[in-house]
Design goal:
By secondary structure, this protein is an alpha/beta fold. The chain has a single domain (2-149), classed as Phosphoglycerate mutase-like (Rossmann fold). 27% of the residues lie in helices and 23% in strands. The protein has four helices and six strands. The protein has helices at 24-38, 53-60, 78-85, 102-112; strands at residues 2-7, 46-49, 67-68, 94-98, 125-133, 136-145. It has a six-stranded mixed sheet with strand order 3-2-4-1-5-6. Strand 5 and strand 6 form a beta hairpin. Helix 3 (78-85) packs across helix 4 (102-112).
Length: 158
């Protein structure tokens, strides 16, 4: 299984937290990263997003259908994110559009064995995959990239 952790792009300050919108810079970040992902994701990839407005806007940039999942909302747990994604048994690649600190904790849990306070930058993607070893599903990091390192056309940085 491939699991793509995509942190929402830059959002404006405000309250309530769940209603914050992407800034103009955040919209550009989302479009840039979406173009990069679109060239790499399989057609059957599932996209899951938190109900927060900024994650919804980030997911929309991908131009694919997505599911809004309460299990990914602000304050989500590592367990709820992994259950929503079906880790490690999902047959499809799953993209989770969510929040810090949860996404960093998920990456830490999968790569280091316990939730870690790892920082995933706004708009960035961490792409993880399972690989079987000694009867267990281990996680490997396939890519970690931010929107500042990709062009708007899905290619290399400028």
């Amino acid at each position: 299984m491939d699991l793509v952790l995509w942190r929402h792009a830059e959002a404006a300050p405000g309250t309530p937290d769940g209603d914050r919108r992407l800034t103009p810079k955040g919209l550009k970040q989302a479009v840039r990263m979406a173009a990069w992902l679109a060239k790499r994701l399989p057609d059957d990839a599932r996209v899951l997003a938190s109900p927060a407005r900024r994650t919804q806007q980030t997911a929309i940039a991908l131009g694919r259908r997505f599911e809004t999942r309460d299990e990914l909302a602000l304050g989500a747990t590592v367990t709820s994110v992994l259950a929503a994604a079906g880790w490690p048994d999902s047959a499809a690649t799953v993209v989770v559009v969510g929040h810090q600190p949860t996404l960093g904790e998920v990456a830490g849990y999968l790569l280091a064995g316990e939730p870690q306070p790892w920082s995933i930058r706004k708009g960035a993607v961490w792409w993880l995959a399972t690989r079987p070893r000694d009867g267990r599903a281990l996680a490997t990091l396939r890519a970690a990239i931010g929107p500042d390192l990709v062009s708007g056309r899905g290619g290399q940085s400028r």
